[in-house]
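Tokens for chain A. Residues wanted.
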């Protein structure tokens, strides 16, 4: 059973896991969540702009949104991160200093914006066109109708897809390590990789994977819950009553009841 002992020492060395646990919690987990949350927020802003441009009636607004979406959805995430992180390094150093941390967030937000834009566009276009026409009939402008009626309904319909996109950003945040983050800015994967190199086994990386699962698995089930909730509605529809049921539920008049008793 030497192979089993070797397997356990390679992937489940609890001493190595306990040694790296404080750094994974205090540095890796915090940075992963910070990168993911800020990239998602910026991606939502970019995506909403792209969605509004994508459903616009003017071609000169739809075409740039289509080009942006095709480019950032078509390129591999690691290529975009390297192009942004290395291409704008000098500008970032003048603004943020030597840390490539902001550029990693910017790259992820540009990628997320392309996907979120398509999510928002699909949600907006799923709203019945009659609602927009009703708003125009009431005297609302096209912009007011979109902002107050159509867009809020579209966003509500795509909330599960937005959570799915956040899960994807959490996993893609591990690619930011290619930019060479500072020790205090390293995310879960980088912390686990460094500890794995020092200890000579993969147990710290396994623990980093467990932290990713702790984040993504509950969110996945939350997506499924909201998706089922939005599909079925809060209340189940009551089955239609038959004619016999309606007759049975009708109140009996006192005179008729007295005649039956006699």
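Reply:
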């Amino acid at each position: 059973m030497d192979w089993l002992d070797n397997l356990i020492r390679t992937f489940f060395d609890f001493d190595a896991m306990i040694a790296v646990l404080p750094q994974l919690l205090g540095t890796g987990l915090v940075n992963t969540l910070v990168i993911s949350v800020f990239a998602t927020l910026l991606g939502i802003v970019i995506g909403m702009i792209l969605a509004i441009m994508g459903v616009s009636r003017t071609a000169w607004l739809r075409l740039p949104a289509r080009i942006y979406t095709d480019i950032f959805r078509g390129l591999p995430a690691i290529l975009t991160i390297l192009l942004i992180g290395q291409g704008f390094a000098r500008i970032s150093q003048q603004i943020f200093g030597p840390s490539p941390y902001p550029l990693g967030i910017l790259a992820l937000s540009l990628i997320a914006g392309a996907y979120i834009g398509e999510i928002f566009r699909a949600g907006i276009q799923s709203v019945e066109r009659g609602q927009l026409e009703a708003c125009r009939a009431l005297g609302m402008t096209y912009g007011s109708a979109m902002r107050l009626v159509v867009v809020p309904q579209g966003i509500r319909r795509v909330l599960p897809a937005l959570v799915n996109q956040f899960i994807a950003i959490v996993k893609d945040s591990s690619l930011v390590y290619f930019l060479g983050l500072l020790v205090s800015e390293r995310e879960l994967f980088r912390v686990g990789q460094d500890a794995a190199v020092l200890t000579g086994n993969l147990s710290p990386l396994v623990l980093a994977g467990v932290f990713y699962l702790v984040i993504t698995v509950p969110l996945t089930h939350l997506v499924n819950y909201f998706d089922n909730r939005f599909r079925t509605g809060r209340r189940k529809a009551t089955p239609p009553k038959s004619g016999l049921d309606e007759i049975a539920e009708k109140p009996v008049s006192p005179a008729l009841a007295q005649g039956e008793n006699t």
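Confidence is low (pLDDT under 50) at residues 234-238. The first helix runs from residue 2 to 11.
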